[in-house]
Amino acid sequence: MKALNSADIEVWKRFKNGENEALSLIYSENSRKLYSFGLKITSNRSIIEDSIQDLFCDLVKNRSNLGDPDNILSYLIQSFKRRLLRQLNKENRYSLNNNDEDYIFDIAYSIEHDIILEEKSNRKVILLGRAVTKLTPRQKEAIYLKFTERLEYGQIAEIMDMSIEGCRNLTYRAIKSLKDSIQSNGSLLFLVWRKFKSIKKY
Fold it and tell me: Hey, what CATH topology would domain 110-201 get?
């Protein structure tokens, strides 16, 4: 069962009822996260910005017919990702044919940032960065959504168009890959595992 976010439910209801204040709140709380997610897929900032703008324009246009998501960010990422990949496909940047690895997901992101707050060792950050590059694009995406955006497996599964169990397995394999890559460095392994251990249970 999905965990319902009462705050999201309320603001979404207000948005669907036509309140511009609710629209502004949704945009301000989520647009930067959508932008950051888009940068994991493409460096073309113009396409990312256009996709976000088009997404919110369509939300406003169709607000009375929209469903009721349990998590607004998850819903927006799912819609934004489809829109962005379609636009990239039009630009001949990707050939999307249901191949899981057809798009690149670059996760050189906040795992390093979080750990550097605790460990001021550039060597540790470099080691972790190298470990991350060994993940597949799908593993990187799952880790990003779970670790950075703190989404639940059901929400991630919807974004990635896969089963919840498949999503869990994908995330576990990514974590194991990171562990195996850095197991020779005990202190870094401990920090990474402490970061990830809480997400294995859900």
Answer: Arc Repressor Mutant, subunit A (1.10.10)
DSSP string, the chain: -PPP-HHHHHHHHHHHTT-HHHHHHHHHHHHHHHHHHHHTT-S-HHHHHHHHHHHHHHHHHTGGG----S-HHHHHHHHHHHHHHHHHHHTTS---SS-TTSS-----SHHHHHHHHH---HHHHHHHHHHHHTS-HHHHHHHIIIIIS---HHHHHHHHTS-HHHHHHHHHHHHHHHHHHHTT-HHHHHHHHHHHGGGGG-
Q: What does the DSSP assignment read for 36-71? A: HHHHTT-S-HHHHHHHHHHHHHHHHHTGGG----S-
- What CATH number should be reported for the domain whose range is 6-90? 1.10.1740.10
Structure-block tokens of residue 149: 């955006």
Q: Is the pLDDT confidence value at 39 over 50?
A: yes
- Predicted TM-score of the model (pTM): 0.78
What average pLDDT does the chain have?
Answer: 80
Q: What is the pLDDT of residues 55-84, one digit of tens each?
A: 999 999 999 899 998 899 999 999 999 999
Rounded Cα gap, residues 11 and 23, in angstroms: 8
96-144 residue pLDDT tens: 544 445 567 875 544 444 444 444 455 666 667 777 888 899 999 998 8
Domain boundaries, the chain: 6-90, 110-201
